[in-house]
From TrEMBL:
Family: Belongs to the mandelate racemase/muconate lactonizing enzyme family. RhamD subfamily.
Active site: H318 (proton acceptor)
Name used for this protein in its record: L-rhamnonate dehydratase
Binding site for substrate: H22, R48, E338
Amino acid sequence: MAMPTIKQIRAYTVRGGGADYHDQGEGHWIDSQISTPMSKYPEYRAKRRSFGLNVLGTLVVEVEASDGHIGVGVTTAGELGAFIVEKHLARFIEGQKVTDIEKMWDQMFHATLFYGRKGIVLNTISGVDLALWDLLGKVRDEPVHAMLGGPVRDELIFYATGARPDLAKDMGFIGGKLPLKHSPAEFDAGLKANLDQLADMRNRVGDDFWLMFDCWMSLDVEYATRLAHGAAEYGLKWIEEALPPDDYWGYAELRRNVPPGMWVNTGEHEATRWGFRMLMEMECCDVIQPDVGWCGGVTELIKISALADAHQKLVIPHGSSVYSYHFVITRHNSPFSEFLMMAPQADEVVPMFTPLLEGEPVPENGRIKASALDKPGFGVSIAADADLARPYEH
Ligand SMILES: C[C@H](O)[C@H](O)[C@@H](O)[C@@H](O)C(=O)O
Ligand SMILES: [Mg+2]
């Protein structure tokens, strides 16, 4: 059968949750006080939106094929991403066969190398890549996981990220990841408060439930080492993203410093096979956590995951909803997943990219059955009432 070609690519922006899940209103746990590299500035300590964590917003990429099928991908990139798609990447996509994803990815990456490499450009390339895989699945009438080798297990198992690991335990998740509240700028009193919070949570959840700290790039090796040793008493399973992404040397040192058995995990703000090669060859971490909407998409995650497998590293993608579920279910070295609790008080399960996607599966009792993913492509569509804007055209 002659494969259709791509007739048009379109880039839209939308605010309020969605793929840019930090773009929330007042009172949401994800915008409470959380330790960040900006916490040393008191004026930027209370809320991450104050320094612009939600400045980008969501990018929605649509690719329409000559046979009428439309593929959709979403990521954190907003208007900047829309510009890159419409003014630069479109030339590598339109007119191409829907099957030629590898070539389209290679051209997008190398054509933007002079200003990309990581960050918003790789977020944008990831968004296009997700749309291309979604389109190919729709044309072939297959879920993405079937094009990646198929499920290796019957269900996805999740830990929950949010302010209430105690409630997450009652909902059937296997663990709870707490955002670290106090930064090194709050000195020993802050460190003690962090550990007191962990101790309280451990008392609430008991011993056979994972507890983790997410430090969102905000610490230094000395503080992270003290935090890890203090947290060992409460069975901290891993310390996540303790340092800025480029401090490979610091991660390698931290990994040597932490108590035996405690994982040092990172990678959500890393991108491409080269970035993850550096993390693994410099012995920075136990588990890599690429975000499929930020690291280069499915096409690059295939390469990253194979490299990790050779290094006997687990690949536990950062919370990226259905876009990573199709990958995780097909990989032996991805035995569990993250679920971000996007309800404002982290007290109920709502779709991770709410309110953007129709058909977004959510864990029940901390699990999603592989069969829930058996729809063409990624099996989701943009909500009919999404207030999409198309800021640029080509
Ligand atoms: C909860 C963390 O502070 C971040 O908001 C989250 O996006 C990320 O680090 C995660 O691992 O989910
Ligand atoms: Mg994290």
